[in-house]
User: What shape does this take?
Amino acid sequence: MEGKIQKGPRQANSQGGKRSQRELFKNPRFIVEGAQRHDLDQGYLGNCWFVAGAATLATSDKALFERVVPPDQDFDASYAGAFRFNFWWYGTWTEVIVDDYLPTDGRELIYCHNRERPDELWPPLLEKAYAKLRGCYEALDGGQMKDAMVDLTGGISEVISLEDKDKVNYELYDLLVCSFSMKSMLGASISRPVGSTESEVGMSNGLYMGHAYSITGFQQLKTSKSVVRLMRLRNPWGRGEWNGAWSDNSREMQSLPSDIRAEMDARSVDEGEFWMSFEDFVKNFQEIQLCHLQIDAMVEELRDNQNKQNWNVMVYHDEWIRGVTAGGRCNPPNERLYWSNPQFYLNLSKTDTVLSSRGECTIIISLMKKETDKNALIAIGFDVYRLRKPDLRPLNERRAPENTLDMAKTSGNYECYREVTKRMVLPPGHYVIIPSTYLPNEEAKFMLRIFTEKFANSSVMEEKPDMSDKDIPPILSPKDFVYDLFNKIAGSDSMLDAAELQTFLSAVSEEDIKKQVNFSVEQCRSLLPMKDESRTGRLGFNEAKKLWKEIKAYREVFLHFDRDKSNSVDTYELTNVFTKLGFPVARPVLTAIVRRYGDRDNRISLEDFIVIIFRLIELFKVYQAQEQRTGRSGVAEFSRNEFLQNTMYL
Assistant: This one.
């Protein structure tokens, strides 16, 4: 069997396996009479969220459905035993090809299928392709309906909480109807009881807690007393319906004329679809999940304007890296780490067409965490600050106060969702967006999408090298004892090899700064080539003296950041250390440094730091020399032997 078998309306035969569809059905079909929402019924896998999302896709625009499920494939003469599907996977439409071997109980399919027409096979094949994209069937066991809808459309998700019933706006129904009319995909879910061991818990009214439903329609009926606002929902099981007011066999539904019931497609059979009033919906459901195919359909946006077009989108792929950019939320005692999070600059210079009289700009920000382990619950969110001094960036502990920052907006509470979205209205100006995890040192990759009505400049905020801003302490003049120590330790050739260099640095540091610097032989093997201009593998007196001078200078800067006097610094401080030395490095380089030299506690020792800074400087010199040789800015050329020689020696 593939995947995890869940509790369902019947038990699977343990003797089942994977069977091709020509083995199961005499006349298998891919799609019969067009795709319909009733084609998908959930099987034993706990993926109601995906089945409900796919059912909503089948109800949406035909062209949208056919982008995901290409129609030019079937079990006819062109049949080759493979089918293809397309998913929007973190910014890119990705084709997934699967064969038609599907999990069975030995007689019939056990996962998603069409219960009424089991020989219609696009639903189980689509489910298999999605499972392949995410790693396996078990990866579909539990999830968010909005995530499935985004992966099927490339839209942008939004969540509306119904937890606080007293704060649900009366206008929400009209906003949902408008959003639905603009092709947004809608779903709803009921929270599972706290402490429940069951994945789904039945209620006396026919609904299930811990379960997701598609929202498939709206209807308003005039009565003698008022207007009744109705919503149509579908259980992805293909059975199990609401049994309260306006359900299939309720007094309210049966009192309607037959033509109205036919218009509403209200059927007195248990096929999983039912009507209920908006008021009952709010009472029973805790969350609405939406996927907007048009940015204008963002629910809060609707009351301002429904005719916006041509949104500009900026997309960034980045990550939170432990010891480098995983700074967490700006909360004590880790608030200083917050500024190490990735930062994105945004310049809003033009007001929106509709909001021009108010001098404001609309911006929608979507932060999407890239899943690597669906069980890793990492809460994410973002802050937006307005910059008073835009040249002082990226922000850090010093620049943030100088910028007299205004907290413009936040995404709200940090959530363990894959995607967090926020629409906001801001005045023109310079802003920085800082996405983060709730806790520091949580690693994840993410995609940030920024939507603006008018064109806006944006960029990743990184330190830029400025050698004129060096802040290296002055190098002190050497004392006579250095020469004496060198001659005492050097060999008969008056040169130091790596082992002798270790002894020399230990002795000269104890004498000169009254504190021994303990380099290992391996670290000395890395330091020696940095001053070995003749590449003999040995250092003469002038080279050794110069090496010690620079070590002292770099040590003074390092000690400034060694707040606890532990002879090590937090890797999150490295950006500040390198900047103070006048040699800021790009984040990919910083990440490589932390991965190689950082320990489990995200700390780097003084000795390793000295090696790092020397290597950076020397490698940069090698690069500059090759760049000058090509005469092209930003381009350096190396032959294979040149590359190997420099990387092996330095």
User: Anything to note?
Assistant: The chain has 18 helices and 23 strands. Residues 1-15, 302-308, 465-479 have pLDDT under 50 and may be disordered. The two ends are 54 Å apart (CA to CA).
